[in-house]
Structure formats: C-alpha cells, structure tokens
Amino acid sequence: MTGSSLAAFLEEYAASNPKDGEAVSEILLGLAKCAEQVRDYVNQGALGSAFAGAKGSTNADGDTQKELDVLADDNFLDAMRAVPVALYGSEEINNPVLLDRNKKYAIAIDPLDGSSNIDTNVSIGTIFGILPVIGDPAEHPENSFLQPGSSQLAAGYFIYGPQLALVVSVGNGTHIFVYSARSNAFILAYENLKIPQQTSEYGINASNYNEWSDKQRRYIDDCLAGASGPRQKKFNMRWVGSLVADAYRILIRGGVFIYPGDKRKGYANGRLRLVYEANPVSLLAEQAGGAAVCCDEEGGRRILDIIPTELHQRIPLAFGSSAEIACLEQYHGKNNT
Ligand code: AHG
Ligand code: MN
Ligand code: MN
Predict the structure, then answer these.
(1) Which residue lies with its CA nearest to atom 16 of ligand 1?
(2) Which architecture characterizes domain 201-332 according to CATH?
(3) Fewest CB atoms less than 10 Å from the CB: which of 31, 142, 199, 253?
(4) Whose CA is nearest to atom 14 of ligand 1?
C-alpha cells in the first residue's frame, strides 16, 4: 500500500511469483540503485562533467550521443553485471551485450531518454523492459529482444525531474514510487494508477504537421477546430520532448501521446524505438487501463502484439486515454467497413 518501500513491495511480489519474482526484484533494485547515481549526475547540471554536450559519436540509430547518454549507459551496463541479467540491449550500443550466458533474463534499455532536454533543465529519464531469455543467449543474443512487448515480465522508467521517481509494472497494475531522501528509499506514492478514459489533451510534435499522413493531419485539424468542430470540445496540447515526462503526465491526468510516422527521411516509422521505448511505456499504459497502438496504414495495431524485427526498430506510437486512442484509430481507418 502507499507509503511502503520499493523493497517491501517487491518482497510481496516475489513471494507471489515463485518462478521469476526474486530475480526480477533483484534486477529492479539494481536498476533503482543505479538510477540514484545517474540522478546525481543530472542534479549537478552544468557544474558536472556529464553535461559537456555531444561526445562526437552516434548511436545505432544515428542519433548524436551526448556525454550523459554514454555515462548513463556505462553505469547501467555495470549495474546489470551484478544482478541476474544475461543480455543488455541498449539504445546506445549496436548489438546486445552478453553479460552471463547462464542467467535467464534480458534487459532492454534506453539509458537516457529525452537527450535533447539534457542541458535545458527539463525532466529526462531511463526506460527499461525485462524479458525472459529465449534460446542460447551466447549463440543468438538478438533473439531475446525479438519478443512481443506482452512478454515483458516487468517494465518501467525512472524520471529525473522535480522528483526522482520510478514508474513500474510487474504485471499487477502500474505504480509510481517517489524517491525520499529522508528515508533514502523509493516510496510507493500511487498504487495501481488508472488513466482517465476520456481526455481533451494531446501531445504531438506539431512542427511535423506537413510531414504527416492526411489521416493524422485530419485528427489534429478536428482537435484544433474545438467546440464548433467535429469533436465539439476544446483540446489542449502538451509536448515536452521527453517521452518519460509526457507519459508521466498522461498517467496522472490522462491524455494521448502521438508520434506518427512521417515523410522525413528515416521517419517513416516515427522516432520512438519499439523494444526499449514503446514496449515498456505501452505495458505501463495498458496496466493503467489505457491503450497503446501503432497508428499506421493498418489503422491501429496493439503495440504489445508486434514482433520486433531488430533491436533498434522504430514504430509509430500512440498511447494514453483509451476512448481517445479508439477515436484516433477511427481516423486511421480501423474498423472502417
Ligand atoms: P531519446 O532522447 O532517447 O532519443 O528519446 C527522445 C524521444 C522521446 O523521448 C521524445 O518523446 C521524442 O524523442 C521527441 O522527439 P522530437 O524531438 O522529434 O519531438
Ligand atoms: Mn528515448
Ligand atoms: Mn535515449
């Protein structure tokens, strides 16, 4: 119940999940300890070395790597060596890293989400999904990451914002733990959160309007038409540029987040990566009674059903209030007879 520590919450979870509970708990506690260290780098801001800007390198997806991207990745990779993780699949590393072929779990991770906000003092975070290893992790390391998001045993993210918080699901709802310096522990603040089904708030990077499909444009046009338009209500818009911050707002007060595919080179499937961004956030959204879909020409496929083809695959992503996601799917042609 609220007020209990992450350790106490995970003890209860492990007791009721004899197969994976203990190992998944150990991994989550290892992630939490590392997040406290990364939070310290973030808190130092420009006074610390981690904010020196771009490292001059790029990741597998061609994104410029910031100092903090790589520092966070190094810290989490190290932290995962001490817990029962066989494979580490990171946004910042081309191929999965084999840590221990005898362990049974794989972690998919975006070590630093919201890199464009690192030096603007805006919330950023670390997103993760924990998967069971498939096959021989030494022979075929990538196979463990090509499972649908519904196979995640646990998923969530740390947000380095006004509070350090952990948003997490171990399959029994979505919960938020806020870090308390006083008790030097993550404390349960919201148990079994539910996303309001209806909303009048959407998040999208509207600067890409001219690059969207006609269907996507029409959805936003009708939101902008307000009370006198087809939606018959005024909409508000929020876009932080850090998935972890937009997702936190949606979990707390509802809304939809949309990153569609667009006509820019390399953005046919949007910007978000399926395995270590869309899947963890989609599990959180669904466990909180929301919906998460891939709004493309097929109308709207459930994100957690999609089989990834490679670790860094991008996916058009829309998640949040279930009634509004259903409406967005209509605009994209779902169930149109
Ligand atoms: P990352 O910093 O890990 O690359 O993720 C950034 C993502 C996501 O956090 C955010 O919602 C989106 O990129 C913002 O994209 P735009 O900058 O195109 O708006
Ligand atoms: Mn990211
Ligand atoms: Mn990142």
Answers:
(1) 241
(2) 3-Layer(aba) Sandwich (3.40)
(3) 253
(4) 241
